[in-house]
Design a protein that fits this description.
The protein has about 230 residues and is α/β, with parallel strands linked by helices. The chain is about 35% helix and about 15% strand. The strands form three sheets. A four-stranded parallel β-sheet has the order 3-2-1-9. The chain has a three-stranded parallel β-sheet with strand order 6-7-8. A two-stranded parallel sheet has the order 4-5. Strand 2, helix 3 (about 50-60) and strand 3 (about 65-70) form a beta-alpha-beta unit. Helix 2 (about 25-35) packs parallel to helix 10 (about 195-205). The radius of gyration is 16 Å and the shape is globular. Residues about 210-225 have low confidence and may be disordered.
């Protein structure tokens, strides 16, 4: 099965979206796609989430919409039924992992410890969400996992910012990062989609620090709340 990390391998950032009003889903997704971030995770944290996934899947052809905060077999079925093309969970159990496998779409189960990583590798899963990234040890922790567990790949999410993302992306075991800094609450409340598009463009321009320079490259000094 295709991995979430292979759906858009050139993209450094997956925006993690919380939709309060389903009507905002399509213009928000269009802004993210226009800014260069077509892989969009809509979290199942609000009553509007499934309608948002459904609308983006139907009306934004350039978007690859997925569902996050998937924590049950029922949530897996509901998300896939709404049109989610990938699934992300903050953690995993045997029952949830079974439902994710049976869904037929790529998935990222969440981990925060070496034991959880080893358990997933034993089950044939090598691509994972590292959550909550900053609280669970951040860049130093993932760097320490690369030696003994080189086959595991991660999408760190949780506290990742525009400033910290390049350090994560420089790690050999990180395929992308998840974040919300391109979705500031003030811009969402004002439905300032051009602002979202501009911040998405900054995020899409992120790259790991060059070995020669060691300095992160961004296109502007956008604010970076947290993911």
């Amino acid at each position: 099965m295709t991995s979430v990390l292979d759906l858009a391998p050139a993209l450094p950032v997956v925006p993690v979206v919380v939709i309060e009003e389903a009507a905002d889903a399509v213009p928000l997704a269009r802004a993210l796609v226009a800014g260069g971030l077509p892989l969009i995770e809509v979290t199942l944290r609000t009553p509007a989430a499934l309608d948002a996934v459904r609308a983006v899947a139907a009306e934004v052809p350039g978007a690859v919409v997925g569902a996050g905060t998937v924590v049950s077999a029922a949530g897996v079925a509901a998300a896939v039924g709404a049109g989610a093309r990938f699934l992300v969970s903050p953690g995993w159990t045997e029952r949830l992992l079974g439902a994710l496998r049976e869904s037929g779409v790529p998935f990222l189960p969440g981990v925060s410890t070496a034991s959880e990583v080893v358990a997933l590798l034993e089950r044939g899963v090598r691509d994972m969400k590292f959550f909550p990234a900053e609280a669970a040890g951040g860049v130093p922790y993932l760097k320490s996992l690369a030696g003994p567990l080189p086959e595991a790949r991660f999408c760190p999410t949780g506290g990742v910012s525009l400033a910290s993302a390049p350090a994560y992306l420089a790690l050999p075991n990180v395929g992308c990062v998840g974040g919300t800094w391109m979705l500031p609450p003030a811009a969402l409340a004002a439905r300032d989609w051009p602002r979202v598009e501009a911040l998405a463009r900054d995020a899409a321009a992120l790259r790991a620090p060059s070995p020669a320079s060691g300095a992160p490259s961004t296109s502007s000094g956008a604010l970076d709340p947290e993911s």
